[in-house]
Amino acid sequence: MRFAPVRVALRLAGRLASQLVGAPRWLVGLLIISVFLLHPLVLARETDLAKKTSFLSKLEAIAYDTRLRLTLPRRGDPQVVIIDIDEGSLHREGQWPWSRDKLARLVTQLLDRYRVRAVGFDVLFSEPDRSSGIPVLEELARSDLKNDRRYRETIENLAAKLDFDARFATAMRGRPVLLPFGFTVEQQAVGALPPPLFTRTDLGSGKIKILPEHGYTANLPQLVEASAGGGHIDPVFDSDNIIRRVPMVKLFRDAYFPALSLAIVQNVLEAKRVVPKFDGEGTLEALDVGGLEVPVAEDGTALIPFRGPSGTFRYYSAADVLAGGLAVSEFPGAIALVGTTAKGLKDLRPTPLGPDFAGVEIHASLISGMLNEDLRAVPAGANDLEALVMVVAGLVVLFAIPYRRPLVNAAGVIAVIAVLVGLNLALWIQWRQALPVAATVAMLLVLFTWNMVAGFAREARAIRKLSDMFGEYVPRERVAQMRESGRRFSMAGESRKLTVLFSDVRNFTALSENLAPPELSAMMNAYLTPMTAIIHDQHGTVDKYVGDLIMAFWGAPVDNPQHAQDAVAAALAMQQRMLKLAQEFRARRWPELSIGIGINTGTMNVGDMGSKFRKAYTVLGDAVNLASRIEGLTKEYGVDIIVGEDTRRAVPNMVYREIDVVRVKGKAKPVSIYQPLGTRVSKEHSDELERYARALAAYRQRRFEDAEAEFVALAAANPALRLYALYRARCAGYRLALPPEGWDGATTFETK
Fold first, then answer.
1. What tens digit of pLDDT does each residue of 488-547 get?
2. Is 458 helix (H, G, I), strand (E, B) or coil?
3. Does residue 469 sit in helix, strand or coil?
4. 494-635: which CATH architecture?
5. Hey, which end of the chain has fewer CB within 10 Å, N or C?
6. CA dihedral 113, 114, 117, 122 (to 10 degrees)
7. CA 639 → CA 63, 87, 488, 727, distances in Å?
8. Numbered ranges of CATH 3.30.70.1230 in the chain
9. What's the pLDDT tens digit per position in 118-155?
């Protein structure tokens, strides 16, 4: 009786096998294909990782890991180095955690001595630094020594010096230093989060298929405020507890926050925004980081582009960096990630390359992959494509390969698998697409086994119905999806009439020589931020910053009929804002800045332009070059803003002072240049402009004596305006040596 259930089970299995053998071969084959199709159509779409534990999912993970290991570059990237808090560093500098003033020195050494592009910490600073002992001393001042006036005064004097968190914040402020944080399953809020990348409302009709986080553990607010930003350090653990992916964005309270690697790349590329890109169905497919596209899955995750086993990237001891023991030229321009490999502190992660992979190298791999555009991606519709390939390959094996001849059948199945694996590897290597393959290979092997078991008697019937079955199981829409999966985006530009603005700080080099790098960086941030805000408020597009120079344009990407009007309004607002900035800079003992602005309107090329490593949405053309030359003339004439004649014609409701007719370097045709003064001026100012116009007319009519008299009077009434004195000097010179007969009144400039 004990074996009755077993006998019943065997009897049922025998009947099932008998029925399967007796059934049409194609019907059983289709049943096998249908069962395997559950993987791409149902199981692989499951968002709950706990449920993605099927045998085929594990098999797919093995296939992915195999492809990864076979194609590893096995070399680091000079763009990324790791500053290692190793055993030697702890021995030389003391046990962990280090005081924050030591970390401040580490940041200063990396940025000032070794000239790294950015510093990313893989270490959290969620609690205040108490290593200075100041909390104990302050407690004594409140208790046992509260009546000791000298002791209290001493503690008050020492407090600022021993505030190591403040020192660390000062070392980071205004500099490219980024901090990590982590999300938690508990509803908690430890520390402060940096600003998010974007919010749910910014997505529009697009969607990112991730669930919101419950809480977070982040850094001290004063450190977050001083840093250049930060990102989370949470990877994704697949069902086999292996890390292959990292969420590039995570959702918390309707806001999306970046991974640390993405935040560092955004900072290095000076990208103002990270823009999610969606396909026609509103599914996330990439993140645009200042023109650099980062491919991601629909849930925002990116595959980690491992370059080799742990230790592939260059490691440098943190103690050597602190001591300045490395050559200054060791890693200039690199991105420095601060992590640890010391015993007890190791951040080790299970990855396809081993169970003890340094966590900091995960960030390094992602940064390298993004900068080199070396990220592999699971394309949109990958599950549908897998299902299509599975159906096509299954039907080929089921119907196209002769199954009565075992050797031919085996050779055919091996050939299909070889083609399938070869195409998959080609997509992996050449086009950096990670398509699933293991379930299809497993299905083909099961089908081969079934073909051998089914026998030769079923061949004729199966062949007769081949075309019908093929047409039934290969829908057209899936073929269309395959064709569409490799879509590329064009970088072609277009020719449009736009307005471009150049703004430059005068004598910036001389003004900045006496400022320490942190102060200079803070001053530039304090200047560029309000100027950029004004440009954005006036519907402009900031093209680039080149040191202290700002380049912006109006009329693209969104068409703006009053682009010239908005550009002139922005220039006037920028000059007004500089007056307020002067007061703020004096209060901070910074030099007062003055700027010159040049504006020109004309036809120019606009679009995404650049290389495969980095693109920028920018403008090119003669009209752009002329705007740059016009900006340089503000120094010559001593005025703050100069616009070209096309801009003046496009904004007729503005009061202008005509400056001159000039030939700039590179252009033979003279152009008139003007100073915009606003939409209205006082009666006194209007009278001055009329008098100036008469003087300018006399000058161009070669009546230099009359013109000089007018300019002398104007200069006396307006000694601060260099323009009148300039024309007075010109008239005096022309009275002594008249210009040639062909003189057209234009001034020629041979330098930029």
1. 333 357 888 999 999 999 888 777 777 888 888 889 999 999 999 899 889 888 888 888
2. helix
3. helix
4. 2-Layer Sandwich (3.30)
5. N
6. -100
7. 68, 61, 48, 14
8. 494-635
9. 999 999 999 998 776 566 555 555 665 556 666 565 65
